[in-house]
Design brief:
Strand content: under 5%
Shape: globular
Number of helices: 6
Number of domains: 1
Radius of gyration: 15 Å
Helix content: 55-70%
Distance between the termini: 32 Å
Length: about 90
């Protein structure tokens, strides 16, 4: 896997405030909720597959996924409501 494949992950991680708010932070790093979200979305993984990969309960996986999804929706609304730079219009 090339480093370029990880750039979107790091870009999302740098938005820290939204992602950090999505984590319950009890024994879970800021990266883990985002990794759970990306695994489920990117690989069309089931809750059970995510449970096995991240060693968390099904309830925790579901709760974390939904919190990150809510943060992503909020982030997309913020980005879409901000002014579009002229360079993107070309």
């Amino acid at each position: 896997m090339s480093f370029a494949c990880l750039l979107p992950f790091f870009s999302l991680f740098e938005t820290g405030a939204s992602i950090a708010a999505a984590s319950n932070r009890r024994g879970m790093s800021v990266e883990e909720p985002l990794a759970i979200f990306v695994k489920i979305i990117g690989e069309n993984a089931s809750n059970r597959m995510a449970q096995e990969r991240f060693l968390q309960s099904g309830d925790t996986i579901s709760r974390v996924f939904n919190k990150v999804l809510d943060a992503m929706i909020e982030l997309s609304l913020q980005l879409s409501s901000s002014q579009t730079p002229a360079s993107l219009l070309l």
